[in-house]
Inverse folding.
């Protein structure tokens, strides 16, 4: 069974760059026609899709975050990463990584999430 | 951007009851609609995709229906482990995928 695990700093200072990694186990990130997504949830709020990447590097981002987001993939380490630049307190959220079944589809496996707080 | 509206925000129910959660899209999403279950400290769980197809390992008490703009998730007989927050997600008009604000099932 595929498992995803987020990792990264839990505290980021305003104006700095948030960087998270999602390690995939139980399957290769390159196997199948899968895409790899990031989703976040602000405290007490709903879910916001950030973007996804394919194993070949094709990306799609949420237009509301596109100018600040980069998602990358490292097939040799079976992981993908999120960077979000120029963060503010509004970026404080639980960040989840998830597997997208086909790109433009639903998310069938998720990580448990990692809380990132933006504060000085 | 497609807006997904879930109702009610909170539902107080007793174990064994049948519950129906609603999700409405601001425009048609055909059947490109998924439902997820979220519990604190756990990975979100895919329940339903394609509006009505249960994901692998999901009990038969969960069922989804609808198309276009109106969707429902029904739990036929609530078990204790079903008390959670449920989200719908559309993937017909993207980017971005959009989610509803969630419905919290709490014990009456």
């Amino acid at each position: 069974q595929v498992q995803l695990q987020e990792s990264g700093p839990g505290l980021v200072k305003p104006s700095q760059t948030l960087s998270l990694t999602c390690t995939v186990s139980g399957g290769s990130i390159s196997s199948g026609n899968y895409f790899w997504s990031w989703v976040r949830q602000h405290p007490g709020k709903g879910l916001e899709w950030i973007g996804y990447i394919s194993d070949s590097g094709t990306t799609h981002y949420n237009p509301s975050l596109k100018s600040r987001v980069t998602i990358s993939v490292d097939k040799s380490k079976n992981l993908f990463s999120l960077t979000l630049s120029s963060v503010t307190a509004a970026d404080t959220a639980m960040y989840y990584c998830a597997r997208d079944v086909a790109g433009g589809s639903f998310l069938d496996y998720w990580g448990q999430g990692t809380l990132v707080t933006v504060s000085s | 951007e497609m807006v997904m509206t879930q109702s009610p925000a909170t539902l107080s129910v007793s174990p064994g009851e049948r519950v129906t959660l609603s999700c409405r899209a601001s425009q048609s999403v055909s059947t490109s609609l998924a439902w997820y279950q979220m519990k604190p400290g756990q990975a979100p769980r895919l329940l339903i995709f394609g509006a009505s197809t249960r994901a692998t390992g999901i009990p038969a008490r969960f069922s989804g229906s609808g198309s276009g703009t109106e969707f429902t998730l029904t739990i036929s007989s609530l078990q204790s482990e079903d008390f959670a927050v449920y989200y719908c997600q559309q993937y017909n008009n993207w980017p971005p995928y959009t989610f509803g604000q969630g419905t919290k099932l709490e014990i009456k």
